[in-house]
Amino acid sequence: MRSEVGSRRIGCEFGRNMLMKSEPPSLVDLCVRTVIDNLRYLGDVGGTDPQLLARILPHCTVDQLMHIEKSTKGRDLTPITDDLWKNFYEKEFGIRNTKLVNERMEDKGVSFRWSQLYEAKLKDIEQAQKKSLDRMKQRYKETDARKQSRQVRLCTKVPPSSNKRSFGGSYNVSYLKSNIMKKAKIEALKRLTPAALQHLNLLYVTCMSLDIFYFFGKKSLDIFGKAKHSFLLANPFFSFYTVQR
């Protein structure tokens, strides 16, 4: 009998507990759940009860919490959100960095909001990444410049060689020699007597006659060509005289 009574009491207590656990949620709980499911639409929470915010805001992401704090005007949410930002800082940058920041603030006797520390750390990381990218770009440019300098290039202008310079020098020497010879021959012509000049004129007329006859008598090409050649060989000085005229 006692065992039966004890079992009945236990069964009654279990039923009461089940009834208590299965009680419907309150209107506040339903509202909190609805807000948590729609955090992406949440903005200014200036008039919201702090206890409700303490239940809602821990479910926010970094971007959502930052948006809510910037959208809320006339109210400081730091007493509620500071620990949340510290948790974000620790998850993002590690426990070691979080402890280091705490130690530095204690040593210097200053205190900053963890949201400010989080944003400052992000900016430092972005600047460091930008500097590293700039260094990588500069190294790439230097490497590319070295490769370009080592490549074989086609030259449109060939630099003058030593042979060409020597050829040009010999050409100038021969040109000077020819000028000297011309001047000497001109001086020699000036010193000729009138009889000698008359003789040269006669030879010049004879040579011109041979040219005219050669032009009209093409059939005798070889004969008159040989005759003129023999005449010029016999009078080498005459060839220069005809040019001077």
TrEMBL record:
Which chain positions lie within coiled-coil regions?
Answer: none
Q: Which GO terms describe its cellular component?
A: elongin complex
Among Pfam families, the record links this protein to: Elongin_A
- Please name the InterPro entries in this protein's record: RNA_pol_II_trans_fac_SIII_A
User: In Gene Ontology terms, what is a biological process of this protein?
Assistant: transcription elongation by RNA polymerase II
Instruction: Output this protein's name.
Output: Elongin-A
Q: Which organism is it from?
A: Eucalyptus grandis (Flooded gum)
